Amino acid sequence: HVTTRQDVQLHEVYIEDTPEVLNQLLEVGLTPAGGGGNTIRNITTCSHGGVGPEEVFDPRPYAVAATDYFLQFDSSYHMPRKLKIAFSGCASDCALAGINDVGFIARIQNGEQGFTVFIGGGLGTHSRPADLFADFIPARDTLRMVEAVKRMFDRYGDRRNRHRARLRFAIERLGTSQFYQELQGEYSTISHEEVPDAV
Q1: CA 5, CA 92: separation in Å to the nearest integer?
Q2: 2 confidence band (pLDDT: 50, 70, 90)
Q3: Backbone phi, then psi, for 55, in 5-degree steps?
Q4: Alpha helix (H) ranges present in 71-157?
Q5: Is the pLDDT of residue 126 over 90?
Q6: If you ran DSSP here, which 8-state letter would residue 129 be given?
Q7: Angle CA(15)–CA(20)–CA(26) in degrees, nearest 5?
Q8: Cα 150 to the chain's mean position, in Å?
Q9: End-to-end CA distance of the chain
Q10: E strand or H helix at 87, and its extent?
Q11: Is 136 exposed, middle or buried (0-12, 13-18, 19+ CB in 10 A)?
Q12: Packing angle between helix 142-156 and helix 167-174, nearest 10 degrees?
C-alpha cells in the first residue's frame, strides 16, 4: 500500500523473512524508521517539490534534514503518540501542512528563505486545522522548531489514553494561549549548539 504519508507498506511478510527484507531495504538506503508507532512519522513534502511552478523554494532538503536528525534519537520513538510533520513549498500548501501536528509553508522575507509555521492540526477523531504559530522563522531554524514541539509534546502528551494522546489534545488540555507561550519559550531557548541548523 502507498499511504497518505508517502510511505510504502509491505503486507503479509512472514516473520522469518523480516530480517532479510530489512537488510535489503538498508542496502538501497531505505529504512522502516518512522513508519509506525509513537514516533515522528514519515516527514512529508510537496509532491511537486523542486519543480512546482508556484514554489517559493524547494522544501525537500528541510524534510530530509529533519528526518535524518530526529530519527537518530531514541526519544523520537517513545513519544505519547505519533507526531506528523509536513513541509510545503508554495502558498497553496500541496503537502497539507495545515492539517499536520507541525506544518511549514515556504516563504521569503527580506530576501531570506524561511517558513510560516502551523501547529496542532490533525484529522481523525476531533479533527482540527493547525493554528498559525509563527508568521516567519528562518529556514535554518526548522530543526529547533520541531525540537521545541517535541519537548512540549513529551511533557504534556497523554500517555494513558491513546485516543487523547495526539498533540492537538495536549494543546486543548493546557489551553492554546499557555501552550503556545510555553512553546515559544522552548523555541527561544534552544541554542545552535543543542540543535544544528537545518541545512
Answers
A1: 18
A2: confident
A3: -65, 130
A4: 142-156
A5: no
A6: P
A7: 125
A8: 9
A9: 31
A10: strand 85-88
A11: middle
A12: 70
Q: CB of 114 within 8 A of CB of 185?
A: no
Q: Which residue has the cell 521545541?
A: 148
Q: How far is CA 190 from its chain centroid?
A: 18
| Spatial separation of the C-alpha atoms in residues 113 and 103, rounded to whole Å | 16
DSSP string, 143-186: HHHHHHHHHHHHHHS-SS-GGG-SHHHHHHHH-HHHHHHHHHHH
Average pLDDT for residues 183-195, to the nearest whole number? 94
Q: Is 144 exposed, middle or buried (0-12, 13-18, 19+ CB in 10 A)?
A: buried
Contacts of 162 (CB under 8 A, 6+ apart): 81
What's the pLDDT tens digit per position in 21-32?
999 999 998 888
* Whole-number Å distance between alpha carbons of 147 and 127: 24
H or E element at residue 27 = helix 18-27
